[in-house]
Design brief:
single chain; alpha/beta; Rossmann fold; formyl-coa transferase, domain 3; 3-stranded antiparallel beta sheet; 35% helix
C-alpha cells in the first residue's frame, strides 16, 4: 500500500441529500477519501433504504432493512440521525457545517431556508463552505420551484426521443434508459463541480454556492445528438440499436443470438468486410467511407444482416476480435460478472457489514496508481455513527 494519503483525506462533507443524484456524488467524494457524514431523518432515513426487494440478507439468510438500491450508493459514509425540522436539529446541523468543507443537499429550491440551513445562513458561519444544491430545474427559471425526477427529465430533456426502436418498426416508440442516467450524470457533474470549487478555494480561501440541475445535466450529456440538431436544425429520431452517425454500428442477429458490431472507421470496415467474406464491399464507392455508408444504410444493412445470420454469435466475435474489429456480446448481469475481464478488474467487491457479515459493492472505476480507492465502510445503518459524530463535536452528553 502507498503511504500517500487519499486525494480528499482531511476533507469533511455534510451530506443532506437522499435517493440517488446527491448520494452518488457524495459516494464519489467518500471513495476519494473524504469523511462524508450522511444526515438522515430519524426512524426512516434515506428513502432508498426501503426501495426493495431485494434486501441485503443477514447471516441467517433473512432480509435486513438495507435495500440493494440504498447499498449501491452509500458506501464509505457515516450516518447520523437528526430531525432538521426541529430548532435543536437545525442548530446541530449548523454546528456541523461550521466544521465542514462541503455541504451537499437536494431539497426543493428554498426548502432549507426555513430551517436556517440555506447557503447564506451556512456561509455566515463558515465562509469557506462549498455548498452544492442539486435540484430538478436549478435555482432560477420558471420551473425552479417544481420537483424533478429522473424519469420525467429523460422525457422532457430529449433522451426518450432518441431511445427505443424506430416508430415504423414493431415495438417502436419512446423508451427510457435501464438505469436512472439523469441522476447518475448529475451526481458525476456535481462531483466534478465540487472538486473544481475545492481547487479554487485553495487560491481564494473562500467557498461558493454550486447550482446543479438535473435538466441542465441531462441536456448536456446528450453530447453529439444535441450538436446533430444544433448544426442541422433537424431533431434526431429514434434509431433502435443503430447509430445516428456511424455505420455499421449496431446489433446484429447471429444464428444463435445477438452481438454488437461497432465499426468506428473506414479501416475497421474494410477489416470487417474481409471477415464476413465480402471484401468488395469495403472498396465499393457506396460504402467505402462512413459518409457514404450513412447515405446508403438502407441497402448495406440488409445485406450485412443476411450474412451475420450464417454463423454463431461466438464464432463471429472470435473472428472479428482477431481482425481488430470492435464487437461484443449482449450480456445479462450474471454474464457480466462471469466475464474474465470483469473478474480481472475486480469489479465485484465485498465490504464487512454489521448485519450481513459482508455486503457486495461495485468497485469504483477510478484507478489511481499511488492512492487507490479504499473500501473502508459498508453503507451505514441508520444513525449508526450518531454517538461518535456528536462526541467529535463535543456534544455527546447533550
Amino acid at each position: 500500500m502507498s503511504e500517500r494519503k487519499a486525494p480528499l483525506d482531511g476533507i469533511r462533507v455534510l451530506d443532506l441529500s437522499r435517493v440517488l443524484a446527491g448520494p452518488w456524488c457524495s459516494q464519489n467524494l467518500a471513495d476519494l477519501g473524504a469523511d462524508v457524514i450522511k444526515v438522515e431523518r430519524p426512524g426512516t432515513g434515506d428513502d432508498t433504504r426501503g426501495w426493495g426487494p431485494p434486501y441485503l440478507k443477514d447471516k441467517d439468510g433473512n432480509d435486513t432493512s438495507e435495500a440493494a438500491y440504498y447499498l449501491s450508493t452509500n458506501r464509505n459514509k457515516r450516518s447520523i440521525a437528526i430531525d432538521i425540522a426541529t430548532p435543536e436539529g437545525a442548530e446541530l446541523v449548523r454546528k456541523m457545517a461550521a466544521k465542514c468543507d462541503i455541504l451537499l443537499e437536494n431539497f426543493k429550491v428554498g426548502g432549507l431556508k426555513k430551517y436556517g440551513l440555506d447557503y447564506e445562513s451556512i456561509k455566515a458561519v463558515n465562509p469557506r463552505i462549498i455548498y452544492c444544491s442539486i435540484t430538478g430545474f436549478g435555482q432560477t427559471g420558471p420551473m425552479a420551484s417544481l420537483p424533478g425526477y429522473d424519469f420525467m427529465i429523460q422525457g422532457m430533456g430529449g433522451l426518450m426521443s432518441i431511445t427505443g426502436e424506430r416508430d415504423d418498426l414493431p415495438g417502436g416508440g419512446p423508451q427510457k434508459a435501464g438505469v436512472a442516467v439523469t441522476d447518475l450524470f448529475t451526481g458525476m457533474y456535481a462531483s466534478v463541480a465540487i472538486l473544481g470549487a475545492l481547487h479554487e478555494r485553495n487560491r481564494s480561501g473562500l467557498g461558493q454556492h454550486i447550482d446543479i440541475a438535473l435538466l441542465d445535466c441531462h441536456v448536456a450529456m446528450l453530447a453529439n445528438q444535441v450538436l446533430n440538431y444544433m448544426t442541422s436544425g433537424v431533431p434526431p429520431k429514434r434509431a433502435g440499436n443503430a447509430h445516428q452517425n456511424v455505420v455499421p454500428y449496431q446489433v446484429f442477429a447471429a444464428s444463435d443470438g445477438h452481438l454488437i458490431v461497432a465499426v468506428g472507421n473506414d479501416s475497421q470496415f474494410r477489416s470487417y468486410c474481409e471477415v464476413i467474406g465480402r471484401s468488395e464491399l469495403g472498396e465499393h464507392p457506396d460504402y467505402a467511407t462512413n459518409s457514404a455508408r450513412l447515405r446508403n444504410r438502407n441497402t448495406l444493412i440488409p445485406e450485412l444482416e443476411k450474412i451475420m445470420k450464417t454463423r454463431t454469435r461466438d464464432e463471429w466475435i472470435a473472428a472479428l476480435q482477431k481482425a481488430g474489429v470492435p464487437c461484443g456480446p449482449i450480456n445479462n448481469l450474471k454474464q457480466v460478472f462471469e466475464e474474465p475481464q470483469v473478474k480481472a478488474r475486480e469489479i465485484w467487491r465485498t465490504i464487512p457489514h454489521p448485519l450481513a457479515g459482508e455486503a457486495p459493492t461495485t468497485a469504483s472505476p477510478i484507478r489511481y496508481s499511488d492512492t487507490p480507492v479504499q473500501y473502508r465502510m459498508a453503507p451505514p445503518l441508520l444513525g449508526q455513527h450518531t454517538d461518535e459524530i456528536l462526541e467529535e463535536l463535543g456534544l455527546k452528553d447533550a
